[in-house]
Specification:
The chain has about 180 residues and is mostly helical. It folds into two domains: about 55 residues, no CATH class; about 120 residues, no CATH class. About 50% of the residues lie in helices and about 5% in strands. The chain has a two-stranded antiparallel sheet. One of its GO terms (molecular function) is nucleic acid binding. InterPro entries: DUF5641, RNaseH_sf. This is DUF5641 domain-containing protein. It comes from Ooceraea biroi (Clonal raider ant).
Length: about 180
């Protein structure tokens, strides 16, 4: 059943190895070897637990929540996509998964609407908005701490791609700019 997939995986591994790709695997059951991506997983679980609490969600609601959180995580900018100073697009985890950045439709924020006035769908949207607010704030603080304390930080100069904070942006949207 998995013979075709196994052969394709073997072909890909051989092609990459011939181009000098070196595979490094983490030991099983050793998340501390994961570094930054394990920190993102830990942060996501922390905020998800705090937001859901004792709430009872249906399977569909929980699945929707996880898919929306997945979109938030896969939309975060990693580095500039191009060296062209006129381009402000960043490489995101979504580029590795689907080959391009994620396209999301804007929705009105429900974060400050009283819970008693919300339908189940609106309540779920409010939870997603709250996750975005808390997680993105923590993520940005961690980016500053890492560059500030762990490695000598690169100085911002003309042409640098920068991440701007704008609390009015909807989930999965990051404001990027270039220093001119």
């Amino acid at each position: 059943m998995f013979t075709t997939g196994s052969q394709e995986l073997s072909d890909i591994a051989n092609a990459l190895a011939s181009n000098g790709t070196e595979w490094r695997f983490n030991p099983p059951a050793a998340p501390h070897f994961g570094g930054k991506w394990e920190a993102v997983v830990k942060s996501t679980k922390f905020h998800l637990r705090r937001l859901i609490g004792e709430s009872l969600l249906t399977y569909e609601e929980f699945l929707t929540l996880l898919i929306q959180i997945e979109a938030i995580l896969n939309s975060r900018p990693l580095c500039p996509l191009f060296d062209d100073p006129s381009d402000v697009e960043a490489l995101t985890p979504a580029h590795f998964l689907i080959g391009s950045s994620l396209a999301t439709l804007p929705e009105p924020s429900l974060e400050h609407v009283p819970t008693s006035r919300l339908s189940r769908w609106q309540s779920l949207r409010q939870t997603i908005d709250r996750f975005w607010t808390r997680w993105s704030r923590e993520y940005l603080q961690r980016l500053q701490a890492v560059s500030k304390w762990k490695h000598p930080s690169r100085q911002i100069m003309v042409g640098s791609l920068v991440l701007l904070i704008d609390d009015r942006l909807p989930p999965s949207k990051w404001l990027l700019g270039r220093i001119i």
